[in-house]
Design a protein that fits this description.
Mean pLDDT: 95
Protein name: Glycosyltransferase
Number of strands: 11
Structural class: mainly alpha
Strand content: 5-15%
CATH topology of one domain: Glycosyltransferase
Radius of gyration: 19 Å
InterPro entries: 6-hairpin_glycosidase_sf
Helix content: 40-55%
Distance between the termini: 21 Å
Largest sheet: 3 strands, antiparallel
Length: 351
């Protein structure tokens, strides 16, 4: 499917080949040269956490699932340090110095650990993930990044089903969600309804967090702000005239008072938009969110500014974004993982 229109868009056959191709005995490699795994750049905690989530969510669709779960879980455990998680593992299997072990990769690792502790898999793996989560939970109050906090709230949503101390989860969720609300109030005005003064990357993660907070605590103000900010994100990034998403480019993020840059668009942005819209649709049953989830997924398949699909039907990989020279032909871990997670989110709510 090189080009598509949403009216005719249907989920294509899914391949996990590139996930397997990028994974070795250490973990999933961060980069590739075209579709060939590139060991020169090593591995990240970010990607291995996402890869673990892919295996958990897709279940028996994944070949050698238990082996892959063990590989990715082992990576997270090795990344664990007293002050957080290291993120970058070099090709020689030495960790790079990590200036912020409580960065966004911390939130993603905790999110993945919370999911595995709640999955219907063997007790040994669940207990390992649960213990690791508990060991790191004392650091949660030290985190400041909005996206880290957003992933932690999502982690609490999964933890609530199995954790012994639900009142503690509710308290921590409230604290983190209130922090996001405060950020939104600080940066918003009549024309800008967002948590920061820029739209950068993985933006859908932020309203998603407040939807999770609403699902945990049942407080409607969280849902109200979640939908207000999600609506702003959709209005800002969806080109109604051309009927496709045009996400902020990483060449220069979209600032509150600035001009949007069209190039440098990344798959992770489409993925987080799909996830946020699917969550909003689950909670509200408003069809507009289903429509936008479908449109964001269609971005991968050619409904974008280049009118070209980023999904490689032969390799099963996803190209790394839209640049000034065209589609980036490399097929790294973040791209395929964002797609597999987004695909699963949409499949869950598909009408």
């Amino acid at each position: 499917m090189e080009k598509t229109s949403t009216g005719r868009f249907s989920l294509p056959a899914l391949k996990f080949d590139h996930l397997y191709r990028l994974t070795d005995k250490t973990g999933i490699l961060e980069h590739s040269f075209f579709a060939i795994p590139d060991k020169n750049h090593g591995y990240t905690t970010d990607d291995n956490a996402r890869a673990l989530q892919v295996c958990l969510r897709w279940g028996k669709c994944i070949s050698n699932r238990e082996k892959l779960i063990d590989t990715y879980l082992k990576f997270l455990i090795l990344a664990k340090k007293d002050n957080g998680f290291f993120n970058d593992l070099k090709p020689d299997l030495q960790w790079k110095n990590c200036s912020n072990p409580l960065g966004e990769h911390f939130g993603r690792a905790m999110y993945a650990l919370a999911e595995i502790a709640n999955e219907d898999i063997d007790e040994k793996r669940r207990k390992t993930a649960d213990l690791t989560f508990q060991q790191m939970s004392g650091l949660i109050d030290l985190t400041l990044s909005q996206r880290t906090l957003a992933n932690l709230i999502a982690a609490f949503y999964h933890r609530q089903k199995t954790a012994k101390n639900f009142s503690e989860i509710k308290e921590k969720t409230k604290n983190l969600a209130d922090f996001l609300i405060q950020k939104k109030q600080s940066f918003s005005d009549s024309n800008w309804h967002w948590f920061e003064e820029i739209l950068s990357y993985d933006n859908g993660r932020l309203p998603s967090a407040l939807i999770y907070a609403y699902k945990i605590l049942g407080k409607k103000p969280y849902l109200k702000v979640a939908l207000e900010t999600l609506d702003f994100l959709l209005e800002t990034t969806f080109d109604r005239q051309k009927d496709y998403f045009s996400f902020p480019g990483n060449k220069s993020w979209f600032t509150k008072d600035g001009k949007r840059v069209l190039y440098g668009q990344q798959p992770v942005e489409a993925g987080s938009t799909v996830e946020a819209c699917c969550l909003a649709f689950e909670v509200t049953r408003e069809k507009q969110y289903y429509h936008f989830a479908k449109k964001a997924l269609a971005w991968y398949h050619g409904e974008n500014i280049l009118d070209v699909s980023l999904v490689d039907k032969e390799t099963g990989g996803v190209k790394d974004g839209i640049d000034t020279a065209g589609v980036n032909p490399n097929q790294g871990a973040e791209s395929i993982l964002s797609y597999l997670i987004a695909y699963h989110s949409f499949k869950k709510v598909q009408l």
